[in-house]
Design brief:
With 396 residues, the chain is α+β, with helices and mostly antiparallel strands. Helix content is 32%, strand content 22%. It contains 11 helices and 16 strands. α8 packs parallel to α10. It is elongated, with a radius of gyration of 26 Å.
Amino acid sequence: MTESGNPSQPADVNEYTASHIQVLEGLEAVRRRPGMYVGSTGERGLHQMVYEVVSHAVDEHLAGHADAMDVTITAEGGIRVTDNGRGLPVEVDEPTGKPAVEVELTELSFGSKPHTGYRVSGGLSGLGLCVVNALSSRLTVEFHRDGHRWTQEYQKGTPVTPLTRNEETNEQGTTIAFLPDADIFETTRYSFATLSERLQELAFLNRGLAISLTDQRPERPVRYHHTDGLRAFVARLNPYPPSLVHSPAIGFESENENKTVSVQVAMQWNTWSSGELHSFANSTRTSEGGAHEEGFSTALTGLVNDYARRQGQLTADDEDITAEAVHEGLTAVVSVKLAHPVFEGATRTRLSNPEANVYVHAVVHEHLTDWLDHNPNEAASIIRHILNTSTGHGRR
């Protein structure tokens, strides 16, 4: 009994009502659950912050508006990314009454990127810049657009200055600088080697895009620019010329009529490795594979068997060559770009789009069959290599 004479009422642990539901508004949700958006609060999530800002510059390149990007690890440990694209949009967003750039940096708008009209977009489906802003203790944006230089500053996702129009300029491009929030991340020290590896990868995947990385802790600049795209990527992965079954690497690309799916492939067999397949979707590594890998592997195994039988390297009595044997010693990179990619899991490591499977299968079957027919000597070497390895794998 209480002093008032009313019996105390114990809480009902089985009770569950609307009052128990906590709704996190806007960027508060990102700051409370950062792992849901960048994968972790460790080194992986820390570097994902950079990749999200970099994705904006890559999207400008894919849209035909940028051909250069500079990434800097600043002396204080932050990141600065500059591109020579169109600059972020400044028009007022009707529903919110805010400048479009502020909406892109503060509003969780799931789906395609707002305002910019990208046909193909990497990053977190339009959330990238917003998430980076939310998880940064400080972020500044500077861009050149509509004949002026524009600036705005944020702290922990909240604007602390209005979007400001500065002096006139004939330049174009965007610079985003941010300092990761030490209250959120377990470490805020960036790895030059980790960033260098990913940026070189992006230069391979996006032919013609020049990417530089500078570390001001002390200064250590590198620059990547690969006009040969994925074939240059494969050449880097196959560094021992005497072990190559054929040279140069095979490379081809194609885009469907609706421009909703495109694929680039480069591949080369060697005698020293067990084989490695690297796949990407919208420049994001798909470490768990998915539809595009399945389309590639199925088409490759089928056409290798068809070609070997047509050339008499397999007889009617021979069993089919297995997929394992076909992939033995094969270094391949498969990159698809889709208007509407569907990934499994928050970490975006497996592609689910069935149209990617179908289109990659068709492109690989057509282009690789054509290459084999037009390069009979190299094709014969490849089949001999596969047949030699097939004895260790058996036939299916």
